[in-house]
Write a structure and sequence with these properties.
The protein is α/β, with parallel strands linked by helices. Helix content is 35%, strand content 26%. The chain folds into two domains: 1-83 and 160-254, 3-Layer(aba) Sandwich (Rossmann fold), CATH 3.40.50.300; 93-159, no CATH class. Strand 1 and strand 2 (16-28) form a beta hairpin.
């Protein structure tokens, strides 16, 4: 589904040069629930923005279903982006629009959209995320967990093949987090959607992810199946995240 090869992202300005990502390579199979974990400032969110090409990589290649995103522009890039649903950290809902209008928003951007088809799709998605009775509510009337469900429904509106989630549980209490992870698992299994989760929470990766990549200071520390990476960590930063001592006893990776 996604192949990332030697991805580097460098920000330059005001005489400064910051390397947010350096030589990162990952392969995400169709149907995976893939976690990307690391400490604050590791480059996780930059990776997500590069995947959607909201940020253009400085170098390297991103293939989505074999298609090189860097070679696309205009209508072709927009078409590729429709294959990726994004759940932003902080929900990013339109506060003056109802739940149904928020979910319908990406569908109404399409030329010549069919109103009946959009309404049917919105109703289907709200039932999927457990908000069938809240279509006419406004975001201010919802709990944090309900807002996140609206954001997920909106991200699924265009029937993407991959769902990108940036810290989807960071603002939720433990019980709501458990329900949210169950929803994501159901979406993965029922719809066959590949899911990439950016998170700093080990419990999220353990609960739902099949594979994980550990990012440290913009570089890939290690990646693989969750039982392998967490059961036999090879990098000091993974050991620190797991609460174990680094192999050499240092604080390398912090």
């Amino acid at each position: 589904m996604i192949t990332i090869s030697h991805l580097t992202k460098i920000y330059e300005g005001d005489g400064q040069r910051v390397t947010a990502l350096e030589d990162v390579s990952l392969h995400i199979e169709k149907g995976d629930v893939y976690g990307v974990i690391g400490m604050s400032g590791a480059g996780k969110s930059t990776l997500l923005r590069c995947l959607t090409h909201l940020e253009r990589p400085t170098s390297g290649e991103i293939l989505l279903s074999g298609q090189n995103l860097a070679a696309l522009s205009g209508a072709r890039l927009r078409a590729a982006r429709r294959g990726m649903g994004v759940v932003f950290q902080g929900y990013n809902l339109l506060m003056q629009k109802t739940v149904a209008e928020n979910v319908a928003f990406p569908l109404k951007l399409e030329k010549g959209y069919d109103k009946a088809a959009v309404s049917a799709r919105v109703a289907e998605l709200l039932e999927l995320v457990g908000l069938g009775g809240r279509a006419r509510a406004y975001p201010a009337q919802l709990s944090g967990g309900q807002k996140q469900r609206v954001a997920i429904a909106r991200a699924l509106a265009t029937s993407p093949g991959i769902l990108l989630c940036d810290e989807p549980t960071s603002a939720l209490d433990p019980l709501t987090t458990k329900a949210m992870l169950a929803l994501l698992t159901n979406i993965n299994q029922k719809l066959g959607v590949t899911i990439l989760i950016i998170t700093h929470e080990l419990s999220v990766v353990r609960a739902v992810c099949t594979h994980v990549a550990v990012i440290s200071e913009g570089r890939l520390a290690e990646s693989g199946a969750v039982p392998d990476v967490f059961g036999r960590p090879q990098s000091d930063v993974t050991r620190l995240l797991l609460g174990r001592e680094p192999v050499d006893g240092s604080e390398k990776g912090e």
